Amino acid sequence: MDDFNDERDGYRETIQMGITAIRSFRPGLTYGEGSKEERIAQLRSELMRADAVVVGAGAGLSTAAGLTYSGERFKHYFSDFEKRFGIQDMYSGGFYPFPDDETRWAWWARHIYYNRYIDAPKPVYHQLLSLLCDKDYFVITTNVDHQFQRAGIDKSRLFYTQGDYGLFQSVDGRNRRTYDNEEWVMRAMEAQGFVRDSNGVFQIPQNGVGMRVPTHLLPSCPDDGSGVTMNLRADDSFVEDEGWHRASAAYAAFLDEHAGLHTLFLEIGVGANTPVIIKYPFWAMAAENPKATYACLNYGEAFCPKHIEAQSICLEGDAGALLASIT
Q1: d(CA 56, CA 8)
Q2: Which residues form the domain of 112?
Q3: Which residues contact 162 (CB under 8 A, 6 or more apart)?
Q4: Is 96 exposed, middle or buried (0-12, 13-18, 19+ CB in 10 A)?
Q5: Can you tell me the distance from the alpha carbon of 213 to that of 104, in angstroms, rounded to the nearest whole number?
Q6: DSSP annotation string for 21-32
Q7: What is the pLDDT tens value at each position of the chain, 327 positions in all?
Q8: Three-class SS state of 6
Q9: Which end of the chain has fewer CB atoms at under 10 Å, N or C?
Q10: Is this model's pTM higher than 0.85 or not?
Q11: Closest CA to 219 of 299, 50, 106
């Protein structure tokens, strides 16, 4: 952290802002007013008129794009792991105590590849970016699947707060760097027996695939030879590298630059697991700026505090369908 002490930390600054603000809000939540059609028209108008748009994206956006962690998609790519270990979905599989490192890294190679190195099945991210293409915007996301970049977002306008499936970090906590894992993932997929189709995407051949990677393919830190782990925020061992701090500072700078302007805080697919990162700060910043609008697109959880009801648009439903209706 010493290397970044002179930079703004938009991540922690906005979290603290949100926690402080909601303590002073009037009690109660609301689902908003007006028909769904009226709210869609209102959001379309806000997107046209806003001086700036701050997008806050959660797991619901990737789910709407088809990057589901359970069901048919899981069974297609991980049926062998389900049969042998009883794993029911990709999320829980990331915590499973596999019997050896060769099996564990076979799992992670697949997990990373199918959630990071291929395009989402549905064009939801492209739909969103088409709405932002002529706007001054910034995106903060808790997603780690790289889909914003794959859809063509300007990386300087993106803050990925919780890590990236495409990065490893050393298990040595003194090493505060991250490492690109694409080359290793591709080799590990080939080692399991996956075969590329005509589009260059790895598929399962008729004779199936293996569930282990060779010992010589176990990943290690290129700097010191130590073991590696995923660069995903799970505890205080998570490495906030130079790119992370640069993005956090850019987020703070964008908010400062547009303070007091007509800003749309557009929250999409953010659930209740980590509301302090996006939801609470968005509520706080909308409450602080009378020119701002808070919009929430969410499947089953589209609400806002009564404190900012007059400035809010709550739309319940699939994010992809809602974005398509706004286009």
Answers
A1: 19
A2: 71-119+182-218
A3: 142, 143, 144, 232, 233, 277
A4: middle
A5: 9
A6: HHTTSPS-EE--
A7: 455 556 899 999 999 999 999 999 988 999 988 999 999 999 999 999 999 999 999 999 999 999 999 999 999 999 999 999 999 999 999 999 999 999 999 999 999 999 999 999 999 999 999 999 899 999 999 999 999 999 999 999 999 999 999 999 999 988 999 999 999 999 999 999 999 999 999 999 999 999 999 999 999 999 989 999 999 999 999 999 999 999 999 999 999 999 999 999 999 999 988 899 999 999 999 999 999 999 999 999 999 999 999 999 999 999 999 999 998
A8: coil
A9: N
A10: yes
A11: 106
Assigned domain for 245 exists: yes
- Separation of alpha carbons 175 and 42, rounded Å: 48
The reply to whether 58 and 148 lie within a common domain is: yes
Helix (H) or strand (E) holding 158: strand 158-160
* φ, ψ for residue 223, nearest 5 deg: -85, -45
Which region, left, alpha or beta, applies to residue 8 given φ > 0 means left and ψ of -120 to 50 means alpha?
beta
Q: Are residues 199 and 276 in the same domain?
A: no
Both 37 and 58 in a single domain?
Answer: yes
Alpha helices in the chain (DSSP H): 10-22, 36-49, 59-64, 71-85, 90-93, 101-116, 124-132, 147-151, 182-192, 242-257, 279-288, 319-326
- The tally of CA atoms less than 13 A away on the side-chain side of residue 310 is 5
Sequence-distant (≥ 6) Cβ neighbours of residue 138 within 8 angstroms? 52, 53, 54, 55, 157, 158, 159, 250, 251, 254, 255
